[in-house]
Design a protein that fits this description.
61% helix; mainly alpha; 3-stranded antiparallel β-sheet; 8 helices
């Protein structure tokens, strides 16, 4: 699996949180999304997308970036509500599983934006496993615990409003649907590919 697909796969596994769909209204000027009281700016999305694209050596679309940032914020808020903590050591260990290629991992570490982004994705993965009753990425039943954690996030997220700026589309089934705005259909296809990669990874792990 390529680095981009691996990065997307773990994030997408966390992203399998079915929401009713983010409202287009509710975002402030300059905001790409609002997750509860957490604002994600358009500038942060654009800068992170460019930085991750550079680190990967291939395109990492703004809609995929925003989807991951929204997921990270959502899981973090649910984890905080449930009293879940993730140590720096746990985050670092999970990050190396997200980007298993050492050269690519080092590229992510060289840039503050990509390092923070990777750490957020990794922390979200660990939090999801813990929400499902697991101990972390090394839990013998990590896959099953992650699935249970996804259900826990789904249930808890009913009380967390997710709003997406119209230019990015709509938040649907844990991903940005760019077809809503008609301007990001390519990114929507990438989000679909990311979910398919996650499902394929889960099937492979289930057979292992």
């Amino acid at each position: 699996m390529s680095t981009s697909r691996r990065l997307g796969a773990i994030g997408a596994a966390v992203a399998m949180v079915l929401l009713a769909g983010g409202c287009a209204a509710g975002t402030h000027p300059g905001a790409a999304a609002m997750v509860g009281n957490t604002e994600i700016s358009v500038g942060d999305v654009d800068k992170t997308s460019r930085a991750v694209t550079t680190a990967l050596g291939q395109d990492f679309a703004t809609s995929v970036t925003l989807s991951e940032l929204v997921n990270n914020a959502l899981v973090a808020q649910v984890g905080e509500q449930k009293g879940i903590t993730v140590s720096d050591a746990e985050t670092a260990e999970a990050a190396k599983l997200v980007v298993s290629d050492e050269a690519s991992y080092q590229k992510f570490q060289e840039n503050e934006l990509t390092r923070d982004f990777l750490n957020q994705v990794a922390a979200a993965a660990v939090t999801t496993i813990k929400l499902g009753g697991g101990t972390g990425v090394n839990d013998p039943q990590a896959q099953q615990k992650q699935q249970a954690g996804i259900a826990a996030v789904k249930d808890a997220s009913k009380d967390i409003k997710v709003s997406i700026a119209p230019r990015f589309g709509q938040w649907t089934d844990g991903a940005i649907d760019g077809k809503v705005s008609g301007s990001l259909s390519e990114e929507s296809d990438q989000a679909k590919a990311k979910r398919e990669a996650a499902e394929a990874q889960q099937q492979q792990q289930g057979q292992g």
